[in-house]
Each structure stands twice: as C-alpha cells, then as structure tokens.
Design a protein that fits this description.
Layout lengths: L1 E4 L6 E5 L6 H10 L6 E3 L2 E3 L13 E3 L2 H9 L3 E7 L2 E6 H10 L2 E5 L2 H10 L4 E6 L3 H10 L5 H15 L7 E4 L5 H14 L7 E4 L2
Parallel strand pairs: 2-8, 2-9, 3-8, 4-5, 9-10
Antiparallel strand pairs: 1-11, 4-7, 6-7
The structure holds guanosine-5'-monophosphate.
The site of guanosine-5'-monophosphate has 13 residues, from strand 6, strand 7 and helix 4.
C-alpha cells in the first residue's frame, strides 16, 4: 500500500475576522514563518482608496468601481463582496495560478466572500479570528487610533453581524490581548493538520 499526499483539494484556507481582531498581524506572522513554496496569501482587488503606506499590487490591486464592475461582468472573480461601502474581490485566475504553484493559499476575506468560496470549494478550511469578546474588540479599535468613534461603532455593529455566520467556519481562534503568539500558533497548527486529512491523502493498494 502506498500513501501519497494529494493536496489538489483542501488547499484553500479562508481567514475572516471583524475589523480590529488582529487578523492581519496573525496572517503576516504565519506567512513569514512558512516556506514560501508551501503557503502564500493572495492580493485582492478593491475599490477602496489606498491607506498611507499601502502599495498597489502588494496590499491590494486598487481599481475603480467601473473596472471592478466590468470584472464582475466578465466573471473574473472567484468571489466578491461589498464591505464597508467598497468592493473587494478575489481574482479567479490569480487563485488558480497560485494554487498551481504553492501548496496552500490563504484568503483573508470577509464572511460574505468566505461563504462563496466554501460553496465553490467545499474542502476549504474556514478559520474565524475573534477577540475574547466585543468589549475587547472595542478597546482594540480605540487603541489603534485609526477610526473615529462613529466608524468604531459601525465596525462593532458589523462584528455582531459577522458573528452570526460563525457556523460556516471550521475553527475559531481567539486573539487574546498580548497573546498574539498563541493565536499564531493555533492557526499554524490548524494549517499543519490539513496535511493529515484523509481527503488530502490518497491510498493506493497494490
Ligand atoms: P481592509 O479595507 O481593512 O483592508 O479590509 C476590509 C475587509 O475586507 C476585511 O474584512 C478584509 O478581510 C476584507 N477583504 C479583503 N479582501 C477581500 C476580498 O478579496 N474579498 C472579500 N470578500 N473581502 C475582502
């Protein structure tokens, strides 16, 4: 009997989180800790304006609403969604090219996009990141001094809505204040465990 790892399916990992839960910091650490040919993240398209320091093609592909809508019409997205009044989408071609060149792909996308990916690729590993509670999320949003109080309240309302979709996810990782390492470790263990899923391995009997 020969056992070979076949990661043709189960190669996509979705990470979603309410704004401020620390998803980007966790993802950065996970990606940097990995061999580049083993795992990579994908650059999304968005119609939102670049924040200071953000680079086109690196953080996002920053495009206009018109171009985005044309891409929707041409079915160029594996998923897309309107988040905080801006469009965001994952390029189908980029996703497939990356899947062909690396072992696993992490998509850092919102719950609406996550559900679309899960329908398209049912083997997707779905991870939700959250702070211990809404109060700690509020405190983090205040501490990072990025948004006005109105925006913070809006983000908290969004978080409540996003949490309603938690049952679409396979894993919940709590990002506790000052314990980023624990959350990073948890995500790494989840990703590592995918190598051992029965559906990702083929058994050949001779
Ligand atoms: P931000 O503008 O703060 O970078 O991202 C806002 C939200 O959009 C985050 O929840 C982020 O995960 C989500 N997002 C980023 N890229 C995509 C994407 O390609 N598709 C979807 N559906 N959401 C995305």
């Amino acid at each position: 009997m020969i056992i070979t790892s076949n990661l043709a399916t189960g190669k996509i990992i979705v990470m979603s989180a309410p704004s401020g839960a620390g998803k980007s910091s966790i993802l950065k650490r996970v990606i940097n800790g990995k061999n580049k040919s083993d795992i990579s993240s994908l650059v999304s398209y968005t119609t939102r304006k670049p924040r200071s320091g953000e680079i086109d093609g690196q953080n996002y592909f920053f495009i206009t609403k018109n171009v985005f809508k044309k891409m929707i019409d041409n079915k160029m997205f594996a998923e897309w969604a309107m988040v905080h009044n801006n469009y965001y989408g994952t390029s189908k071609k980029l996703l497939h090219d990356t899947l062909n060149s690396t072992q696993k792909v992490i998509l850092e996308i919102d719950v609406q996009g996550a559900i679309q990916i899960k329908h398209l690729y049912p083997e997707t590993c779905m991870i939700f990141i959250m702070t211990p509670n809404l109060k700690s999320l509020y405190n983090r949003l205040i501490l990072r001094q990025q948004d006005s109080i109105e925006i913070i309240n809006e983000r908290l309302e969004n978080a409540k809505q996003e949490l309603k979709f938690i049952n679409y996810y396979d894993y919940l990782v709590i990002n506790n204040h000052n314990k980023l390492n624990d959350a990073v470790k948890a995500v790494e263990i989840i990703i590592e465990s995918l190598n051992y899923k029965i559906t990702n391995n083929k058994l050949f009997f001779d």
